[in-house]
C-alpha cells in the first residue's frame, strides 16, 4: 500500500538571514510550524520579529537562507491568497464602512462576489462587530478597528494566519474572544503565527513558541516542554532546623530566603511535581515546626522570557577571551 506524502509544514525556514546596512537583524533563523499549529514568536522590541514576518509574507527578500510557506514560495500569488495578516500598526481606509472595507479585501483575495456577501456578516459577528458593518471606520474605537482588522485577516478562510499583537487594544472580554477565535481556527486546521507581548495569553493558546533576541533564536520548543513539570514552592515556617533543611533537600533543590522584617523564616523549593507538596507539609510537621505558608506555582513563559533575555544580555556584554600568543616570547 502506497503511503500518501506527509503534508508540507505551514512554515519552514532554514538558516534564514536578513542584513540591513551591514547589520544582521535576523540571523540563522530555523523554524518549523506544522499545519493547524498555534506558534508563538516572542521577543523584545527590536528582536527581528517584524522583519521575520515580512520575509514569511514575501514582503521582504531574505539575504540568505531558505523560506517556504505552505510548501511554496511566499512570493507566489497562489500562496499569498491562502495567507491572512493582521499587522500591529494597522492603517485602514477609514472613509469606508466596515462592510466596504471587507468587500475590498475580498476582491483582493479573489473571493467570488456571492461568497464574499455570505462570508462578511459571518466574520463581523465572529469578531464582535455584528450589526456594525454599516458604520464608517473613522467612527470606530481602536479596539473596534483591531476587530475589523482581525475580520479581514480571516475573511478568505486562509490556511495560515499571521497575528501581530492581536489583543493590544482590546479589553479583557475582547482578549478572551480573540483566544476563542484562535482556538476555532486551530480546530479547522488553520495554522496561526502569533506575536504578542501578553505572555500569559500566549501560554494559553500556543502549542510551540520560539524566543528571539537580536535576530537569533534563544530557545524554542513546545510550551509543555519549555515550562516542564517542575513546581516552584515557597515555604514559611516557625523555625528552620538543619534536620528539616536536610529532609526537604531530598525532595528537590532548596534555597533559604532572607527573612524580611516581620516575616517567618522561609525557603524556596524546586520539586518534581505536585505530588511533593503534601510531603513538604508532612516533613514540616514531623520536624515540630509550625507551617505558615505553602505556595506552589508552575513556571510561566514570562519568567522564562525574562531569564533568557537577561542571560543573553550578560553573554553579549561579556568580553571575548584574549587568545594566547603562539610561540615563546623572548627578549
Automatic annotation (TrEMBL):
Gene Ontology terms for molecular function: ATP binding
Keywords: ATP-binding, Nucleotide-binding, Transport
Gene3D superfamilies given in the database record: P-loop containing nucleotide triphosphate hydrolases
Pfam families: ABC_tran
Domain ABC transporter: 11-239
Classification via CDD domains: ABC_DR_subfamily_A
Domain of life: Bacteria
Protein family membership: Belongs to the ABC transporter superfamily.
Record-given protein name: ABC transporter ATP-binding protein
Amino acid at each position: 500500500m502506497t503511503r500518501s506524502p506527509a503534508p508540507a509544514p505551514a512554515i519552514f525556514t532554514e538558516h534564514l538571514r536578513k542584513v540591513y546596512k551591514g547589520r544582521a537583524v535576523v540571523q540563522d533563523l530555523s523554524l518549523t510550524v506544522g499545519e493547524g499549529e498555534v506558534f508563538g514568536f516572542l521577543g523584545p522590541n527590536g528582536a527581528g520579529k517584524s522583519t521575520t514576518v515580512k520575509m514569511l509574507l514575501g514582503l521582504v527578500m531574505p539575504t540568505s537562507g531558505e523560506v517556504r510557506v505552505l510548501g511554496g514560495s511566499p512570493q507566489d500569488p497562489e500562496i499569498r491568497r491562502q495567507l491572512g495578516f493582521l499587522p500591529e500598526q494597522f492603517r485602514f481606509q477609514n472613509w469606508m464602512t466596515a462592510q466596504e472595507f471587507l468587500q475590498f479585501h475580498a476582491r483582493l483575495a479573489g473571493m467570488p462576489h456571492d461568497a464574499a456577501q455570505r462570508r462578511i456578516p459571518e466574520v463581523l459577528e465572529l469578531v464582535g462587530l455584528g450589526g456594525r458593518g454599516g458604520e464608517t471606520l473613522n467612527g470606530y474605537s481602536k479596539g473596534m478597528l483591531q476587530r475589523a482588522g482581525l475580520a479581514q485577516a480571516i475573511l478568505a478562510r486562509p490556511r495560515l494566519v499571521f497575528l501581530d499583537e492581536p489583543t493590544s487594544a482590546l479589553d479583557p472580554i475582547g482578549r478572551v474572544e480573540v483566544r476563542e477565535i484562535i482556538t476555532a481556527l486551530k480546530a479547522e486546521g488553520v495554522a496561526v503565527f502569533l506575536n504578542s507581548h501578553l505572555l500569559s495569553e500566549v501560554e494559553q493558546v500556543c502549542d510551540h513558541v520560539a524566543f528571539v533576541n537580536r535576530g537569533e533564536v534563544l530557545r524554542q520548543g513546545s510550551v509543555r516542554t519549555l515550562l516542564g513539570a517542575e513546581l516552584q514552592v515557597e515555604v514559611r515556617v516557625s523555625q528552620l532546623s538543619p534536620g528539616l533543611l536536610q529532609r526537604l533537600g531530598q525532595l528537590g533543590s532548596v534555597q533559604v530566603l532572607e527573612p524580611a522584617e516581620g516575616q517567618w523564616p522561609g525557603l524556596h523549593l524546586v520539586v518534581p511535581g505536585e505530588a511533593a507538596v503534601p510531603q513538604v507539609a508532612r516533613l514540616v510537621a514531623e520536624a515540630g515546626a509550625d507551617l505558615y505558608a505553602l505556595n506552589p506555582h508552575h513556571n510561566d513563559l514570562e519568567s522564562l522570557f525574562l531569564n533568557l533575555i537577561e542571560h543573553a544580555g550578560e553573554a553579549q556584554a561579556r568580553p571575548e577571551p584574549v587568545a594566547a600568543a603562539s610561540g615563546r616570547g623572548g627578549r
